[in-house]
Amino acid sequence: MVYSNLNEVVPTGRIAGIALQPTISGLIAVEYLWSENLSITAQFDYYSTPFHGVGTRVLDRGVTESVAGFSYRLTPHLLWQGYAVENLDFITGSAADFTLSTLMTYRIES
């Protein structure tokens, strides 16, 4: 499967005296259904900055990340997911350099 998403946020106000500008974020992902219970996902994300003309690379540039993850259905109601996110920008402080996460989701039948 292939996924994509494009968003725009139009903020109002200021932070520390700096006016906020509209931002966009987007992603494209590919998910491979390995089996009925396991899928593997690769994703590419981009987030623009709400700050313009501040004069620092950390605030003036967007963030680009790559993500790799999996979803594994342990039972019909219990899903285990894990993923790793790598910042591709190499700008100190622009985003976390590396993130590792896992979660469990339990679905209650209605």
List the helices and strands and how they pair.
Layout: E1 2-9, E2 14-15, E3 18-19, E4 23-33, E5 38-47, H1 57-60, E6 63-75, E7 78-87, E8 98-106
Antiparallel strand pairs: 1-4, 2-3, 4-5, 5-6, 6-7, 7-8
Total count of strands: 8
- Overall, the morphology is elongated
**Average predicted confidence as pLDDT:** 90
Report the structural category.
Answer: mainly beta
* Main sheet strand line-up: 1-4-5-6-7-8
Unreliable runs, pLDDT <50, ≥5 residues? none
User: Helicity range of the residues?
Assistant: under 10%
Total of DSSP H or I helical runs spanning 4+ residues: 1
In the residues, how many domains can be counted? 1
- Our estimate of the beta-strand percent is over 45%
Q: How far apart lie the N and C ends?
A: 28 Å
Radius of gyration: 18 Å
Largest sheet, strands/sense/barrel: 6 strands, antiparallel
**Secondary-structure element string:** EEEEEHEEE
Description:
It is built from one helix and eight strands, in the order βββββαβββ. With 110 residues, the chain is mainly beta. It has one domain (2-106). The strands form two sheets. A six-stranded antiparallel beta sheet has the order 1-4-5-6-7-8, with no helix packed on it. The two termini are 28 Å apart. The mean pLDDT is 90.
